[in-house]
Structures are given as C-alpha cells and as structure tokens.
Amino acid sequence: MQRKDLLIKRMNDLGYHLSKRIHTIALMGLGSIGVERDRLDDYSDLDFFLIVENGFKNQYIDHLDWLEETYPLGYQFKNSKDGYKIMFKDGIYGEFAVFDLCEVPNLYQSEGKIIWQRADYDTSLLTQSKGPKPTIYKKDMNFALNEALTNIYVGLCRVRRGEILSGYRFIETFAFNNILSILHHFEEKKAIFEDDYNIERRFEVHYPLFSDTLKNFLQGYERLEKSAFHIFMFLKKHMDVPKVLEDEILRLINEIEATKI
C-alpha cells in the first residue's frame, strides 16, 4: 500500500473507532488530509480535530486509548492544552487537537474535511475557515524595505562584534522575512495550495523565479557577509538607499571579509 493510501486509511480507521464511542461528535481532517487531498504525498502527515461532547475534552486528551485502538503509538508529546504531536509505531506522524462542542465557534482554522460525524451533528460551522488570519504579506513596501535595510546593518554589527548567532538572526531571519513579506509586489504569486499562515509552505511553487536566488540570500552561519551583500543588492534595486547607510553596510561587509583572508 502506498503511504498516502495508508494515511487515508489511518484516518478512516480512526473515524470508525471514534464512531463506536458515545461522547464523540466529529473527526475533521485539515490540510493535505483534509480538503487539499491533491497534494497528499509520501511526506504528508495527519492533522486533525476531534470534537467531543461538552465536558469530555480532558478525558480524550488525558487518555489516548482511542488512538491506540486504531494503531499503537510510538511517540506522544503534549504540545498544547488542546492536543498532541504523535507518531504511530509504523512511522506515521500526526498533530491533533481535541475540542468540546462549545469551543467550535471560536476555533481559528483553515477549511476542513469531515472524516466522520455523528448523524445528528450539523458540521457546517465546524468545516468552514474561521478566525482572523495572520498578516504575513505587507502592503507597505517602504516599511518592509527599510526594516530589512536596518536589520542588515544591525546584523553586520553583531557579526563584527563576534555575536555571530545574533547576526545570523538579523540577516537571514529578520531581514529576509521582511523581503518575503513583500515579494508578491515583485513576482506574481502562483496561487497553488496557498497557506494563509506560512509564507514558506510551497514557496518554490509559488515563487519559482525568486526561488532560484535563495541560495544567495541564505548562505549560512559562516558566510553571513555574503548573504547580507545579496540582500542589500536586492534592496538597492527596489529602494533609494541613503548613502550613509550604504557606506556603512559595505564597510562592515568588507571588514568581515578581510578578517577571513
């Protein structure tokens, strides 16, 4: 059996076992095990919500026998008050949350797919996408570009001081993330299985042209001055960089490079 077929079977088996319990109401798949089945592959996992009668949430969180009935667990980690990260003994990984019925209207989620439901339960509210979505794309290019520019400067100062890890964060995380947040202004995004919560998901599909340059911006802990230079040149292409900042950034890059000769 192919892995993606095994993932679907595991969810269906879980739904079957939950249907035999008296306090369960619905099992909903999310992401590739939900409404985005077309992108399900050998590297997918199980993301799901279990809805139970009011007052029974903790019972299903504190005791995972309902999962073990489907297949034995090899790993479990309670990562929130609502649920776990798990791995079954056959290597299938999953993340799930359990909610009382009264919590459904206040869930933050993308659209879901019902795997199993109790016959008397209307799932229309459960499956719909709801809650505020994070602002991962910025409209104000000027703000993001200037943030990235100053991130680079501060990061290079940290590297020059010997605080390389801090410099790494400023250059390859903060500055780079600011570029990602406005990239849609420079390259048309291919709208294929978009993720409202994470720019990085399927990034290479969404922005194929920019993806070809990623290796220049992300050269790693030991080549931060190289990453900073390429990020700086990208910024200079799209904004008027004040001469004083340009001079200081290029000076720092040259000084860091000189220490490696």
Secondary structure topology:
Blueprint: H1 3-19, E1 24-30, E2 46-52, H2 57-62, H3 65-68, E3 73-78, E4 83-88, E5 93-100, E6 113-117, H4 124-127, H5 141-161, H6 164-180, H7 203-206, H8 208-211, H9 214-217, H10 224-238, H11 243-258
Parallel strand pairs: 2-5
Antiparallel strand pairs: 1-2, 1-6, 3-4, 4-5
Helix pairs in contact: 5-6, 5-10, 5-11, 6-10, 10-11
Q: What does this entry look like structurally?
A:
43% of the residues lie in helices and 15% in strands. The protein has 261 residues and is of the alpha+beta class. The protein folds into two domains: 3-127, Beta Polymerase, domain 2, CATH 3.30.460.10; 141-258. Strands 3-4-5-2-1-6 form a six-stranded mixed β-sheet. β3 (73-78) and β4 form a beta hairpin. α5 runs antiparallel to α6 and α5 (141-161) packs antiparallel against α10 (224-238). The longest helix is centred in the middle third of the chain and has 21 residues, at 141-161. It starts with a helix and ends with a helix. The model has no long low-confidence stretch (mean pLDDT 88).
Overview in brief:
The chain has helices spanning 3-19, 57-62, 65-68, 124-127, 141-161, 164-180, 203-206, 208-211, 214-217, 224-238, 243-258, and strands spanning 24-30, 46-52, 73-78, 83-88, 93-100, 113-117. The protein has 261 residues and is α+β, with helices and mostly antiparallel strands.
